[in-house]
Amino acid sequence: NGVLKEISLEQMVCEGIATIRQLELIPSATKNTRFKTFDGSMTINNGLVNLQALNIAVEKLKARGTGTINLPQETLDLGINTTLLGDLENKACEVHARYRDIEWPIRCAGKWDAEPSDLCSIDAKQMQKIIVTLAEKELKLKAGSKLEETLRKKLGDDFGDQLQQILKFK
Predict the structure, then answer these.
(1) Three-state DSSP class for residue 153
(2) Residue 10 pLDDT greater than 90, yes or no
(3) Contact, 84 vs 104, CB < 8 A?
(4) I need a labelling partner for 81 at 20 to 30 A (CA). Which of 9, 57, 74, 120 fits?
(5) Backbone dihedral angles phi then psi of residue 113, each to the nearest 5 degrees
(6) How many CB atoms lie within 10 A of CB 169?
(7) Residue 166 reports pLDDT greater than 70
(8) Per-residue pLDDT tens digits for 54-69
(9) Angle at which helices 124-155 and 9-21 pack, to 10 degrees?
(10) Domain ranges of the chain
């Protein structure tokens, strides 16, 4: 158990969800990340720390990442993918089924003497991929619902129920 001071992974993920949902983000009172576990593997060569696997477990999310820390230049560049495990406290971050199993990208980069909160934020480039993924999921849900509705009309509710069980709609 420990704390990442001045870096709130939950708040950064909330920021991404609020952006997609077009809701106003209420700033969190918590500016730290309390973690249950923090581990990983790395190699160090000529002052470069190469993080091959960084794993962080927090109460309602998990994070994994990779990246480099340059000791001589005192910089870091980490990519951290964060997955939600449940609802977060901020209402702008309600975790609908469509937001589960998505890795929310966080990027931490810069000189390490900067404010920790300035080093890390949602990775805007990677967010474009999330928007596409969410759109694809939404289309699949709508297509499945429309197919189910059409089959029920054509074949009747009893057959529709059986088909729903077979195809695992909903």
Answers:
(1) helix
(2) no
(3) yes
(4) 74
(5) -85, 0
(6) 14
(7) no
(8) 999 988 889 999 999 9
(9) 50
(10) 2-122, 135-167
